[in-house]
């Protein structure tokens, strides 16, 4: 076997092994997602069928599974919107190592968005969790998912503020957090999006809404004033108690010196 033929054979073998390994991880990903979700309509149960030996005819034929190439079984995206799914954010997505699109919209999913979503889905470009019941704060580390160009979080029960670090998402072209329970100032970098992208959050302020510098400024000043007052009061009380102690024991001290 010549050197060139041997090299070509080795590269083909390496490529084949990589594809098999990728397929195995993707199968593991889908199995974990299926186990972690409640599927009242049985859509995933009837469509996502795995063989006993861990292989499958083609996961690219599964409902909601989008592949890079039908012959490779490498998942490009999961489009699981409007399937009546329940439970929390699905587990095992980190095994879908080629995933760039995730759509879980219009289901009945609840609980927090995972704080580790950035390492689970580092290459994600589109995230749609809209029209669910997700609660808690928006994870700050979504700002580390720098390939994101679309984020849909509208119509949930998210609380807290919009992370200021979202300014790091330079590719972001679509952003919607309307109809949640968010509060605080809207990051300046997101002010390019229309009012409708933030509406339904009574606590939000700043562009494109009215300025919130006064209200939040007064609030901050109030907090700082309270803290300063506490420190001054504590020091004052300590000083007064020291003086009283000195005045009380001063006669005794004078007698002890005479």
UniProtKB/TrEMBL annotation:
Domain Leucine-rich repeat-containing N-terminal plant-type: 26-68
Membrane-spanning residues: 219-247
InterPro entries registered for this protein in UniProt: Leu-rich_rpt (IPR001611), LRR_dom_sf (IPR032675), LRR_N_plant-typ (IPR013210), RLP23-like (IPR046956)
GO cellular component: membrane
Keyword set, alphabetical order: Glycoprotein, Leucine-rich repeat, Membrane, Repeat, Signal, Transmembrane, Transmembrane helix
Signal peptide range in chain numbering: 1-22
Protein's membrane topology: Single-pass type I membrane protein
PANTHER family documented for this protein: LEUCINE-RICH REPEAT-CONTAINING N-TERMINAL PLANT-TYPE DOMAIN-CONTAINING PROTEIN (PTHR48063:SF93), LRR RECEPTOR-LIKE KINASE (PTHR48063)
The name this protein goes by in its record: Os01g0891601 protein
